[in-house]
């Protein structure tokens, strides 16, 4: 009996390929985008349940009208104490983050495969971003804009603080608030504070 190993066709094991850094970043963006979207969906469902629980709080309670009112007030105080409005305002932020990350990941992927399609996607994303930026800034430009959100109020506060600091530097403190509008010595107005 021959104890030698037969020399048949040689089997080659391929070297593992390492993805490029752009691919890793794109996949990371996709996973964070997916997680943010699912988290936003979960919070929306929970938020609806929380609000429904508040709405029926006075109706389910037994007792007099005064006791039901006290129960509703207790729930309302709890909503303020636990910052329910802030939690509910996180939903759009999570969805916006998801959209931004998904668009970035898609653009990165397409840029590696098809530049023409990537250019088209980037152009659409740019138009969408500019439209969103205009709608977000419109309450700063016009106080009666219907597109006011809590983020717009934050943007107004930040812009007013920046403009106030700049004006104080250049106008040597000649700045005031009249009827909720920022006024300088040169009659410069910017949205309600």
Automatic annotation (TrEMBL):
InterPro entries: DUF6535 (IPR045338). Keywords: Membrane, Transmembrane, Transmembrane helix. Pfam families: DUF6535. The keyword Kinase does not apply. The chain crosses the membrane at residues 20-46, 93-111, 117-142, 154-171. Residues 3-112 form the DUF6535 domain. This is DUF6535 domain-containing protein. The lineage of its organism: Eukaryota, Fungi, Dikarya, Basidiomycota, Agaricomycotina.
